[in-house]
Amino acid sequence: YHMSRGQRVLCLAYKDIGAKYKVSDLKKRGRSFLEKDMIFAGFAVFECPLKPDSYRIVNELKSSSHSAVMITGDAALTAAEVARQVGIIDTEPKTTYDLREMKRILPDGFEESAFAFVPIDALPGEYTPEECIAFVPGNIPVLRDLVDKSELSLCLSGDAITKVAIAAVKSSWDPKKTHHLPIDVTTVLRDPAARNVLKALVPLISVFARHSPRQKEAVIMALNDAGRTTLMCGDGTNDVGALRQAHVGISILNAPEIESKVRTAAEKYKKSKKKSLQELADAQQDLVQVALGDASMASPFTSRTMSIKCCKDILLRGRCTLVTMLQIYKILGVNCLVNALVLTNLHMHGVKQGDRQLTVMGLVVAALFLFVTKGKPLNSLASKRPPSSVLCVQALISIASQFLIHLVSILAVANMTLPYIDPDDPSMTPDGPFNPNTLNTACFLILMSATVNTFIVNYRGRPFMQTFKQNKLLLRTVQVSFAACFFCVLEIFEPLNRLMQFAPLPGGEFLVHIDEGGASVNRILAMLLSWVGFKASLIVLMVADSIVAFKTEKLIIKAFEG
């Protein structure tokens, strides 16, 4: 009754041994002597209140494409009810099953171990075969489907996981190779045959009860073997092995007295904020003074709190870091391809960049890269996951599409500018000196615009990190960069153009007329130039390049992530 309500129950008993034994004699006799023929004294029932944010954190983890399980030393009924209260289990008690061993007599008289899931509150002999679900390879897909649909929740005790491992080792034993089958219960969980069975069983389970430290470690190993990425949160010495096996281990403090003090102070603070503020601050300060235990030595992360909120914080910052690195690699990929275009194709047309231009572009790009990394994670986990690799199909398509858009824009500007260039200019040869001219100036402006545009297009923002507008440093740098580009195109501030080694942009007749045999692209650009002029055409191409790249990236994200 009490265990099914999440309470811990201890059975109390005593034994009158009189005064004829010394302490040394009792130690020699051992527990087997002391713990027999005892007199029942009653039950002690303990209620451990849940941490106030556990339910919210667990549900937020589950809604963000993660699975949450409980590994505990408590009894199965207690563990299952607590798991239900915090949201790990979504089913009713009658659809919560526990794995148990069933002995089966073979025709030759030998016993064989078989396993089945039975109602968790059923005592031996109280359940019928119709209520059992056999744990056999053919039933694993059915069990997985029921668990995924939240129609069934499964529990596994430490005793059962060891028996499953022993049965797996026995079934793989070949008497022809080994006459004697040595089974060591301390290492059987690491046997290859046992691990092969456990990696199919463990991912189905939501609650692991009555688990020893070695069994907790085996659970994490089985999840790893099944291809899961594991995060383990523990607070004691018995969690050290599991924390080491997990891909991410987080140690939290275990200080019940201080936890009670903090909870009491928080409740008082809600009722009368002014009077209890100092008391709450003192309680929080006591947490800093708690000495770190063995779990913190085995974990890469240690949280000086007693809440599992640290798991959410790690995921928030991890996703933000992953997205930031992905967008940096994408920006580098697009910019490298664009620069390769400038150094190959356009260089043969005589396109060069001055020292000041290269210096300014380098400083702007360095500042943008710095400010991209200043994006902070959000306070809530997104329901979808970010791409896991820069080599995924989505990232490669994004890089290729952005490069093609910038390629068309830069080549269009170069072709649009050629009619205004004197072919006899010595600086137009690939090995000639840098000399400011219309071609160099226009190509640098579109290249600068495309480079800055890659930071806008590839900045991910929500739902994994701050939006572009919230990253003020990045926003202001982009605004200033685009404003400077447009100022230079329109020649609003002449000293800026001279500082940047720009040539005056044309506004009149072509120096070289396009003949009838010219390319169709050139004729289309000539029509655009005759309608709106060179400066307006350059601005149109810069704006179109930015808009098309931005919209294309959004379509790619929608196509792959929905």
Protein model, in words:
This protein has 562 residues and is an alpha/beta fold. Helices cover 52% and strands 10% of the residues. The protein contains 20 helices and eleven strands. The protein has helices at residues 23-29, 31-34, 54-63, 76-86, 140-148, 158-171, 192-201, 213-225, 240-245, 256-271, 273-288, 294-298, 309-348, 355-372, 393-417, 438-458, 472-490, 494-499, 520-532, 534-561, and strands at 8-14, 39-46, 70-71, 96-105, 111-119, 133-134, 153-157, 207-209, 231-234, 248-252, 301-303. Strands 3-8-7-4-5-6 form a six-stranded mixed beta sheet, sandwiched between helices. Strands 9-10-11 form a three-stranded parallel beta sheet. α6 packs across α7 (192-201). The radius of gyration is 35 Å and the shape is elongated. The two termini are 47 Å apart. The model is unreliable at 510-521 (pLDDT under 50).
| Biggest beta-sheet profile | 6 strands, mixed
Q: If strands are numbered along the chain, what order do they take across the biggest sheet?
A: 3-8-7-4-5-6
Radius of gyration: 35 Å
Class inferred from helices and paired strands: alpha/beta
Uncertain segments: 510-521
The total count of helices amounts to 20
- Give the end-to-end Cα distance, rounded to a whole number of Å: 47 Å
Binned, the helix content reads 40-55%
Count the strands?
11
Describe the global form. elongated
